């Protein structure tokens, strides 16, 4: 068990629990399993797979992941109430290394307004909860929710009591992203100072990014002796998100001098592929300037910088792009590239696809190579992400014709195929502009009504023949769903994106 003196930092990934709580990011079972397998391959130590009490789907997903992965511990979250704890324990029971994570708020504001409980009661509930979980699984983690805003001496009391009750890991969350690095570091140091039995547990931290300090706060806690970091891929999570896995891992790896040589077991060359996978299944785009995995993270625009990097990479690059799984070569395939070359390149980009999927994609690749002479890595990634459906496909776009007139009005004629009934449908609609006309036609033809919440277009690669990507978020009843589509034609990309949302709504995923 890594204590303060150990150099090993445990990576606890909560992409599937906290990350999935990002608005619009809900995943279906197949997608959750795909992410869990990718996290296992990446080398995370613990996968927090979900919050089993919240829904039967969440319970099933945690149970399926517990059966599927063997190397990481699989963890289920529970409030400090018996039915939550029992349900979480049941969901992870099949795991090789099951863990139950019990949480209870300890800060004054949560005690007074949310729980309406006095300190003494909180202490008793925490101990009871840990004891109950401990009776069901050997590995129990406890989190005093909103720890960063809890009175430090009360926090120390809680930590000591739950370690006595059998918690092997105690997580100190900055639930609302309120802390600062100096303050958070001091809090962890204070606990190491005050809690008599602290050597019997691993101290973890879980930081939110409301003020953009989640990663800094997490790393400050590592300097103070925390040996488990709770992170998500791409930093997704509630509100502004969590500390980003890739940033923490690469900070430790790139600056051992700053973090006393602490390191993780992460295979960093899989970071880029994992980031793309999570972006694809959640529908949440990675900002171009995002550290480590953003598209521009290793791009040099200034001539002086580019020249420097060509002469000696380390003049302007502190990390080797290959260390995060990014190959330097940009131009890859063209019209004459064969199936074998295509499959190999997809593999190099981190995609693990079945031969059938590769066959299906190869046709789309040939079509793309016809339209666009040079096919770049980004094009391939976009191709896979748009052609491998996130939900069982009901509707497929066959044909799209758009006519626009000055003054803004437009008409769209759309042909769709229902893959279940094999039936073809054709219809036309008008709208204020071409996109509006397309969406009207799709709505009428499928009978699925959506309220558009967000709609964005961007170029996947540069140049006039670049592919355009459309991403949108729409509401259907109480459900917020994201979708994306890619094409060299942005109207077609928009139609595909809208249709992918409709397919998800129809499939109820
Ligand atoms: Zn959180």
Give the integer mean of the pLDDT values: 90
Please indicate the count of domains. Answer: 4
CATH class of the largest domain: Alpha Beta
Strand order, main sheet: write it out.
Answer: 1-2-3-4-5-6-7-8
Could you give the distance between the termini?
A: 39 Å
Q: How many strand units?
A: 16
Which tags fit this structure?
509 residues; alpha/beta; TIM Barrel; eight-stranded parallel β-barrel; three-stranded antiparallel beta sheet; 16 helices; 16 strands; 40% helix; globular; binds zinc ion
Outline of this structure?
The chain is α/β, with parallel strands linked by helices.
Question: How would you describe this structure to a colleague?
Answer:
This protein is α/β, with parallel strands linked by helices and 509 residues long. The protein folds into four domains: 10-282, TIM Barrel (Alpha-Beta Barrel); 298-327, no CATH class; 329-388; 395-507, 2-Layer Sandwich (Double Stranded RNA Binding Domain), CATH 3.30.160. It is 40% helix and 21% strand. The chain contains 16 helices and 16 strands. It has helices spanning 29-42, 56-68, 82-92, 108-115, 119-136, 152-165, 181-194, 214-224, 245-254, 271-282, 303-311, 339-348, 355-371, 377-387, 434-446, 490-507; strands at residues 10-13, 46-50, 73-79, 98-105, 139-145, 169-174, 202-207, 228-231, 331-333, 375-376, 395-404, 409-418, 424-432, 451-459, 468-476, 479-487. The strands form four sheets. The chain has an eight-stranded parallel beta barrel, surrounded by seven helices. Strands 11-12-13 form a three-stranded antiparallel β-sheet, with helices on one face. Helix 8 links the parallel strand 7 and strand 8. It starts with 9 loop residues before the first strand and ends with a helix. It binds zinc ion. Residues 18, 206, 208, 237-238, 242 line the site of zinc ion. Zinc ion binds at residues 18, 206, 208, 237-238, 242.
